[in-house]
Amino acid sequence: MAYQAFYRVYRPQTFREVSGQTHVKRTLQNALEANKTTHAYLFSGPRGTGKTSMARIFAKALNCEHAVAGEPCNECAHCKEINEGKSNDVFEYDAASNSRVEDMREMLEFIDRAPSYGMRYKIYIIDEVHMLSTSAFNALLKTLEEPPAHVVFVLATTEPHKIPATIISRTQRFDFKRLSSSDLVERMKIVLEDIDLDYDERALKVIAQAAAGGMRDALSMLDQVVSFSESEVTLEDALFVTGSIGQDVFYDLAQSLAQKDIANVLAMLEKLMSEGKDAVRLSEDFITFFRDLLLIQTAPDLEELLELASTDEKFKELANSFSMDTLYTYIDILSKTQQEMRFSLHSKVYLETALLKMVQSGVSRVTTAENPAGMPEVAALQQQVNELQQLVLQMQKGGMMPQQPQASEPKEKSPRRSRQRSNEFQVQVGRIQEVMKRATRGDLRKIQEIWPNAVAQIPKSQAALLTDAQPVASSNDAFVLQFKEDIYCQIAADNPQFMQQFPQVIAGMTGTMYDIVFIPEQRWLKLREEFFSHYQKSKLQQTTEENPSTSGEEAEENVQSMLVEEQQASANPVVDEAMKLFGEDFVEVVED
């Protein structure tokens, strides 16, 4: 007899042999025992999950002469005929190649005839039923609604959403699930033990991971690996045949990411691509590997759930070298990149970009002592701190500095220290007051006019800080930048790239290197009110001294109106632009 593939030779013949799908097996067996089977069933699910095999076993169980607990015996004449495909009462139709209405009418032509050879039911198994045409579905509908008592339909499909609702509503629907890796591995073990071939269990896990929950795919790949191997199914053979990569490659790449060695990361990716690996498949494998590292961190006892990593000590150390937030970030970056790669012809570029993002965003928990070569800056800073501490101690011993109070002595908390412990941004009040003293409407308008273009020229990550920020006062060499909250002021002040690049951008557009002073909105409103109040009093006093004939109330009113006008104009660039276009006599400011 000609050679047959594993998935054909080892097709399950009883419910017990079917891997997984416990919910389907139990429901069908209970219905068989209670004699409560219905006239139509719909089996839906991914390819290679046992839909057609389950339909054949169900057909045997319906007609078996010696069925026990819903299980066919596979020994009686009816079971043997069905197993050999010779039964005249079990019909299998492929809707993909017989989708026309004429084919459906031909199939249903003799449906009213009773089953032959003592069988109780005629069973019609229609595979890939979603491929039927609309006319064919209409021809099937009436028969499916009121079939003869001796007829049972089993419809199988991988795309149930393409089947009309009128068909689905007349069937009992069973959704088949993807098989777990452990189910696939156990079935492959049975096959290899039956043919008496040694194997490495890690090789079977690689095949199961590549099969993505499909038993037929797993057995087909196992068949190919067995043909490629000599006397044993090895891990190297499985990796080569399936196109997967080994644990050591993942380990080395993750270590390079932890050490931020981008050159080695890109070199490893280039090597994998030159070996013919697919970029989309690599991204899937990377996601699975970092998911395994998360499992090792959070649930080390669930070893059976690991797919690409193992519970070896080196993988535990590798998993603990990353924070959980970093692993979540890696998985998120790879997932988004994977979606983008599906619609691009340059998938390798997307994967390289993703790895660069991972290097820049990843925060490793490897300490300086564990990895001094990977963090030289930290080591250098630590050394400088130690030297400064030694210098301070020497100066104290020599009397050049006062001794620090002992830890047991109570320390009085100064207001400044209390402020530093709080989350408030330390506002440079004196500097802002100096800017306000020299501020003019023209200088502020100059900054406001170039503001949108200046923000557009900086990177998006920096521009995001300025979404709600605006200049509120400006002199000829400095301006005050108002933020909504203290936290945004602090983030901007702590960003050295922003502090260096943004003034240069403004200088390129104005010709002046401005000093930028940050302040939160609430602090600015309070500080401006205090400044205007102080300015009002000093201006009132000066006006009274210069013109004694002016009454105090009149002078106060003049100063107040001038300040209100200046405050409104400086706070609203739209008013300035309107005055520039139409003149002050034609513009009236109305407060909402």
TrEMBL record:
Tell me the enzyme class. transferase
**Does the record carry Metal-binding as a key word?**
yes
Reactions catalysed, as given in the entry: DNA(n) + a 2'-deoxyribonucleoside 5'-triphosphate = DNA(n+1) + diphosphate
Q: Which CDD domains match?
A: AAA, HLD_clamp_pol_III_gamma_tau
Chain segments carrying region Disordered: 397-425, 538-564
Give its E.C. classification number: 2.7.7.7
The keyword Zinc appears for this protein:
yes
- Tell me the ranges covered by the AAA+ ATPase domain, including all copies: 37-180
User: Bias category Polar residues: which stretches?
Assistant: 538-552
Q: Which GO terms describe its molecular function?
A: DNA-directed DNA polymerase activity
The superkingdom of the source organism is: Bacteria
Sorted keywords for this record are:
ATP-binding, DNA replication, DNA-directed DNA polymerase, Metal-binding, Nucleotide-binding, Nucleotidyltransferase, Transferase, Zinc
Matches recorded under PANTHER family: PROTEIN STICHEL-LIKE 2, REPLICATION FACTOR C / DNA POLYMERASE III GAMMA-TAU SUBUNIT
Its family remark reads: Belongs to the DnaX/STICHEL family.
**Name of the protein this chain belongs to:** DNA-directed DNA polymerase
Q: Which organism is it from?
A: Kurthia populi
